[in-house]
Amino acid sequence: MPDDFERMWSDLAPLGRSPSSGGYFRQPFSGSERECHAWFVEQCAARGLRLEHDGNGNTVGWWDAGDGPAVLTGSHLDSVLDGGAYDGPLGVVSALGAIDLMRERGITPARPIGVAVFAEEEGSRFGLACLGSRLATGTTTPDQARALTDREGVRIEDAMVERGLEPQLGKADWLDDVGCYLELHVEQGRDLVHRDAPVGLASAIWPHGRYRFDFAGEANHAGTTAMADRHDPMLTYAMMALAAAKQARLAGGRATFGRLDVGPNATNAVPSRVTAWLDARCESDEVLTELLAVIEKQAGERADRDGTTVAVAAESVTPEVRFDEDLIARLVAGRPVIPTAAGHDAGVLATAGIPSAMLFVRNPSGVSHSPAETAETADCLVGVEALADALAELAR
Question: Which residues are noted in the entry as allantoate-binding (predicted)?
Fold first, then answer.
């Protein structure tokens, strides 16, 4: 017999969890992420779902109970570094639970239903978010993916081979048979808390981008070099990070420097270089473009004063995604409809022309990408029921 929601959750919860922080380290094609994948395979087998793998690391469990365009649901099992339990796995566990609930109700769908687990959704290892769905849809080319490496210089294909996979990067044939996609996800904010609603739908995903800032200066001795004689790229970076935060507040957007690489990275040395990665998000493409232009301008002005240089490169930019209005109208059922500033595989599939929608489950903490991320079991079960109702409607 397949496990129920709470049993599934308790079995998945210890995998990849740090005993010190309580956070999760389920990086793509790592041992802990592969443990999660093995758990998913077992759960699909317990339900008699047909498994299909593509060469991008994505896996789908199919309920072959009908004909015509398939209804796809699911999410991802990888995490950010020291991440939370719910971001991604909640959508996978809820999808399996929704299939169980549909069967308990005696519902036989007229169209196939698939539960997908997409690879490298967070971009925590190879730096490109939603890589699995981007490859499957053709949004990212195989050559672009092959050029990606992790922090240790490991290429994605080598990482896959190391875990016994057979990489064949490229567009996935199985997506050709998908008529629509519905992803359940924990909310990454407190909108539903303020609305006193356990479940809501997404209206759109804010445009967002990841940008690499390379600051260059002059390495020197921390003790013997007078402050006036320094060309310190760390100072340029620090002032620019503060300026970016201010400009994001003024624009009503988000600007975050969460990753930094410094050389020579010594306590008693003025750095010669600083590389910083900016995550920026705004309510519209125009506002995001304007925000980046202001940040770049201020970074250049500060570099001129410091005697340093700065170069900016966009590593990924995703425009605004509007979810399918017809799907939302069919599924809303009196629930709130809210935007999100977080990227998701649903956004990639929507951009590729697959009608897509999202369900959010209330997060009382409002915290995400952190061990403090949470959701109440009662709300999760409401989410499972909402997803089951939606899948039944879409697969009629």
Answer: 210, 268, 281
